[in-house]
Design goal:
381 residues; 2 domains; two-stranded antiparallel sheet; disordered N terminus; disordered C terminus; binds heme C
Length: 381
């Protein structure tokens, strides 16, 4: 290992490889010597080009880290700016629709394909952000939270009515909220315990659920007529003026088993739908109204007109703490009349791009958590 010319120092002169005739670098590994061939030309060019490119990149793009971030680059490009530009493009496109959307009435929106798509896309996104916590992602609801897909409405399924419900809420903190309450007939001793049993039996019988009778149904019916019909209607089919549900169908807000109905009548109920007028902008709420209306159970004005006709009778409930006559908000609200509008079909030809699934940004999307309502009392069926 110590003989041979491996120790031949490089500075002394160049060693020439005997086989190839090329000079060596003087580096040797286990007898293998490195030839001092020049780098291939193509390789050198690539190397030079990348050097030039990297210098160009340093100058043009943000590259060198500094204490406060990085050098800006002559081009001024940042990912933030790119994102902002892309977002602006979306907002511009939305604004084109928004302007028309603002001016259009609900019935015009329903007739105009583009505005309709715009409303549904925005409404769907806003619904997921704000409403799904209580009503479920698809609006199917749950105990205490009404299903918004069906055509069973507490307060009304006409688009203006839905709009007002969303604006001011139900038993919410807003002054214009919808009110009226299911009184606590047992707890507040408006009825005796036996009477509660009787009227519960009667209510159950209305939807074909007999249950075990605690008395004769006639007594229950009597109690119903005197205490319940003012809100739920003589026929118990519900009155929208008081948001009182239909008790003759198989759709139950709080559960239709005996224990749930008993609990409703004994303890009362107080479903709260928050007000949105201060939390969402008006156009978002209008989009929501269209979206909810189109979920499946939306009504037209004519269809719901008959429901509104039934006048409210004075409620016999003698309890100041619960809904009194004056508290019962008439749901006959002034709805802007846009019945006979003739929407020009040409109007909609202005913008032809297909609408993307983008929502108008929702200001402050902080949905409240659902209030604890003890609704899951399906035991003791
Ligand atoms: C905190 C829970 C909660 C949230 C969040 C909520 N709701 Fe409600 N909503 C309710 C409850 C409870 C009711 C039923 C009130 C009652 O018992 O009359 C209701 C009722 C409604 C009704 C009336 C249904 C009918 O049959 O008349 C509509 C429409 C509605 N909500 C739409 C919405 C929309 C749209 C949003 C989102 C902006 C929303 N809700 C968010 C709890 C909520
Ligand atoms: C002041 C009006 C009012 C009176 C009087 C009234 N209710 Fe109600 N009732 C309501 C309202 C409003 C609701 C819905 C409660 C809610 O959504 O929070 C309701 C809900 C109910 C429900 C629940 C229905 C469901 O789908 O889960 C039952 C059952 C019921 N009432 C039975 C009665 C009976 C029985 C009486 C008479 C002893 C009565 N109500 C008297 C207003 C009234």
């Amino acid at each position: 290992m110590t003989d041979g010319n491996k120790k031949n120092p490089g500075h002394q002169g160049k060693e020439i490889d005997r086989v190839s005739g090329v000079e060596t670098t003087g580096h040797e590994w286990d007898g293998l010597k490195e030839l001092n061939n020049p780098a291939p030309r193509w390789w050198l060019w690539v190397f030079y080009i990348t050097c030039i490119w990297s210098v160009w990149y340093w100058v043009v793009y943000p590259s060198w880290p500094t204490l406060s971030g990085a050098t800006e680059g002559s081009y001024g490009w940042t990912q933030y700016k790119k994102l902002a530009a892309e977002q602006q493009e979306i907002i511009d496109r939305q604004n084109a629709y928004l302007d028309r959307f603002k001016k259009a009435s609900f019935s015009q929106i329903l007739k105009d394909k583009e505005l309709y798509a715009f409303a549904k896309a925005g409404g769907s996104a806003a619904f997921k952000d704000n409403c799904a916590t209580c009503h479920g992602t698809g609006g199917a609801g749950g105990p205490g939270y009404p299903n918004l897909n069906d055509d069973d409405w507490l307060w009304g399924g006409e688009i203006d009515t839905i709009y007002e419900t969303i604006l001011y809420g139900i038993r919410s903190a807003h002054d214009d909220t919808r009110i009226s309450e299911m009184p606590a007939f047992g707890k507040d001793e408006l009825l005796e315990a036996g009477q509660v049993e009787q009227v519960v039996d009667y209510v159950l019988s209305l939807s074909g659920k007999g249950g075990e009778h605690h008395g004769d149904l006639n007594a229950g019916q009597q109690i119903f007529e005197e205490n319940c019909a003012s809100c739920h209607g003589e026929d118990a089919k519900g009155l929208r003026d008081s948001g009182a549900p239909n008790l003759t169908d198989s759709i139950w807000l709080f559960g239709g088993d005996r224990a749930s109905v008993y609990k409703t009548v004994f303890e009362g109920r107080k479903g709260v739908m928050p007000t949105w007028v201060d939390r969402l902008d008006k156009q978002t709420i209008r989009q929501l109204a269209v979206y909810v209306h189109e979920l499946g159970g939306g009504e037209t004005r004519e269809a719901s007109a008959s429901e509104q006709a039934a006048p409210m009778e004075a409620t016999p409930v003698q309890d100041e703490s619960s809904a009194s006559d004056e508290d019962v908000a008439p749901s006959e609200v002034a709805v802007p009349d846009e019945g006979e509008d003739s929407i020009d079909e040409e109007d909609s030809s202005g913008v032809s791009e297909p609408l993307e699934e983008t929502a108008v940004p929702v200001e402050e999307a902080a949905p409240p958590m659902p209030e604890e309502t003890e609704t899951n009392s399906h035991d003791g069926e």
